[in-house]
Fold this protein.
Amino acid sequence: MSLVSFAFPLLAVYTAVCYFLTPKDYRWSVLLIASWIFYWTNSKKLLLIQFGTALFTFIIGFLIERLYVVEKEKTERNKEITKEEKKALRNATKRNARIVLFFGITVVLGALILLKYSGFFLKQLSAFSFGEKLKGLNLLVPLGISFYTLQAISYMIDVYRKKYPADHDPFRFLLFMSFFPQILQGPIARHNLLAEQLYEGHDFDYRRACFGAQRMIWGWMKKMIIADRLAIPVAAIFENYAQYKGPIIFFAVALYGLQIYADFSGGMDIAIGFAEVVGVKLEENFRQPYFSTSIEEFWRRWHMTLGGWMRDYVFYPLSLSKPFAWLSRKSRKVLGAKYGKRLPSFIAMFIVYILVGIWHGPEWKYLAFGMYNSVIIVCGLIFGETYDRIRNWLHIDKETVTWKLFQILRTFVIGTFGRYFTRAAGLKDALKMLKLTFTDWTDPTFLTNGSLLKLGLDNANWILLLIAVLVLFYVDHLHEKEVHIRETIAEQNIIFRWLVYYGAIFAIIIFGIYGPAYDAAAFIYGKF
């Protein structure tokens, strides 16, 4: 069952009805049962792996908290304990808690590596086996493992940091780890922001339910009308790129950037919309990324919960660690105070984007994707002041609309080159496509010579696609201006409101891409 399958709206409606009919104290159990059903329809027996991860994480959190509780009890019981003894006890507790945390992260992360990356590692090792090819384990990867693994790790670290108490109910904790709207592709939740919302029973609110349903409809429109329609010409060019010239290859990669945005953000809208219906507020994962004026800003607006996770659990711990502090002191002597101070943060940022690339999948192309973005961002930070001096020298006002449009277009183009790596079949194909893009511009008129009509969409579908994309960016423009569209619609008379609702529903039915050959499970980020 996918978020865009015909079964999902039925599950959503049935879950919402049962949720509000169930006594308040037990409403969380309805969400847990619905999550089990959703996960079972997608992963069958792999449900046990997700359950096992959740239970193990729960136990680790409990053990870490128990160490702190025992320390506190010993301190309170022994009234004659000295400051030195308190310090020794505190250090011993911290050391033991760190051991338990390390064990927990090793097991959870090890499961991810084994299930998702073992085949890749064995394939690389086969090159050193004197011609004898090693065979991968062919292990099945549980649905959403990359997402719930990060949730598990952040929970254990937060309990270790005493950010909040450990959860004491294994079944409720299982709901936190497997809440079905966000299990497929996020957003990546933090326990202190989501758990209590799931556990407490929420009353029915008509306005909130309408807003949630509207957002779900908007998500389905983005996915089924835009993303799945864009997927047709994108696949046609990427799968046969050697037959095309540079301009149309770059055009396909740019279309893929729009496709993945409509696909991923559409899935987020569906997940966040349903959660809103039952009174749960999930974190936003997008903030109009294609209005960014730099690649750094783009990644702050794109997949925001992954970026926030990497910032809090990788970047800050690395950049503030003792080895990086030592590196900062040493590098200042060589590079000077300005760049020596920033070098550790540059290295930490480089590591973060490498990990983000690897997180997407066990292929060299994703590593190249991470390296590309890290180099672009670090270079932007290093040469930012020089860039500003050149702009001032040219007397360019950075507040003008034309300059901001130039920055947005520049960011889109730079970001598009990174998409070669994520969409191509492999790293070699991505590099070949890049070479064709820069060396073969013998067909610059593909937009007007009929080439587009050979890519699986007729003229009417291209026009529909153009209109839909313009609507998408107009809505993003309104959101960028902090115009609250749902509130604006709610203020209109009932006839206009329902015309909008029915118009959106019928647009999905009439213009959505689906049918016998449609793969309802093919969310792009679902495979990550």
